Amino acid sequence: MIAGAGMLIAVAVSLVPIAFSFVAAFMSFFSSTTGVVTPALFPLIPALAASTGLSPEALFACTVLGAQSSAISPFSSGGSLIMASCGKEDERVSLFNRLLFLAVPVSVILCAGFNYIVSVIL
Fold first, then answer.
1. DSSP state of 64
2. CA atoms within 13 Å, Cβ hemisphere of 64
3. What is the pLDDT of residues 55-105, one digit of tens each?
4. Angle between helices 16-30 and 2-14 in degrees, nearest 10
5. CA distance 37 to 73
6. What angle do CA 65, 113, 111 make, to 5 degrees?
7. pTM, to two decimals
């Protein structure tokens, strides 16, 4: 039982970078990465890195990459700029759906996979 609990803790610690990636992606889905997400999450990283033994650089990178992965959401600043550049209404509706249901999920999932690899290496 003790060995099992130790294994669960080790697995939970290895998932911290991915959790930060998803939290940052969710926050950036509706807000700015540099204006909201990084000022909110960066102060948490040094203490978390010290308590888990993870690299703070990896946690910083995973946070920013996760936030940038959903920055093309139509509700975020990047996605709204993409939507504003579209001239026709029917193209804008199609673009909105493609950004929301295709581009953002694919980007977030690929970024989470990359962040997992980065966290294992660093």
1. H
2. 8
3. 899 899 999 999 999 999 999 888 888 888 888 888 888 999 999 999 999
4. 40
5. 14
6. 25
7. 0.85
